[in-house]
Specification:
With 106 residues, the chain is mainly α. 83% of the residues lie in helices and 0% in strands.
């Protein structure tokens, strides 16, 4: 491996480590939104959840957490269907997603 390749690899590792530091905040945001939706679904909270999932899907993919990225993309698609009909919100699916999301970062 050349010096340049080693430098790039080192930088990527540092950036991934920085990203890891943001994960607890991402988990708190998802927990809060999911709890709000489970307690009392609202169009606004479902929209905020979709936006958070979209951001996490993109950023986690950039930093090499491809499985998390895919999970978030899949959940985002489901959440999009709920935006037009809040009766479709699946609380169990949300809780399971959150549980799996947390496990991926342990």
């Amino acid at each position: 491996m050349s010096f340049e390749e080693e430098s790039i690899e080192k930088i990527m590792k540092q950036e991934k480590d920085k990203y890891r530091l943001t994960i607890p905040e991402k988990i708190k945001t998802l927990e809060s939104l999911i709890e709000a939706i489970v307690t009392k679904p609202s169009e606004q909270n479902v929209k905020l959840l979709r936006e958070s999932l979209h951001k996490i899907a993109g950023s986690s993919g950039i930093y090499g957490f491809n499985e998390v990225s895919q999970m978030c993309k899949q959940m985002e698609v489901k959440v999009l269907t709920w935006m037009d009909d809040l009766s479709k919100v699946n609380n169990e699916e949300l809780q399971e997603f959150l549980k799996t999301f947390k496990k991926k970062f342990k």
